[in-house]
Design goal:
31% strand, alpha+beta, 4 strands
């Protein structure tokens, strides 16, 4: 088992990729680009599922909001560009 040092420039994120459910929990650097995030997910997926040769083609997350009744609602947001990744981390920061 590999020990890792906590990096304050990372966030835990539940990430859905390639339509998979349930989400996977990863510690991701907060300054990652969308292509870098996809690359990290590809590497992790290959390590966990070495027979699965699919590449990550889409990343989504559930964006929280509060409706007029005070209930928390989640809206699916597909990450399309680097700014979407920064927005995701700023919401959960």
């Amino acid at each position: 088992m590999q020990n890792s040092v906590f990096d304050p420039n990372t966030k835990l994120a539940e990430i859905y990729y390639n339509g998979g459910k349930p989400p996977h929990l990863f510690r991701i650097p907060t300054d990652v680009t969308l292509s870098g995030l996809k690359s990290q997910l590809n590497q992790i997926n290959l390590e966990l599922n070495y027979r699965d040769t699919r590449r990550v083609d889409g990343v989504e997350y559930q964006c929280p909001s509060i409706d007029s009744a005070g209930s928390v609602r989640f809206t699916w947001m597909k990450l399309m560009k680097d700014n979407d990744v920064r927005t995701m981390f700023s919401i959960f920061g």
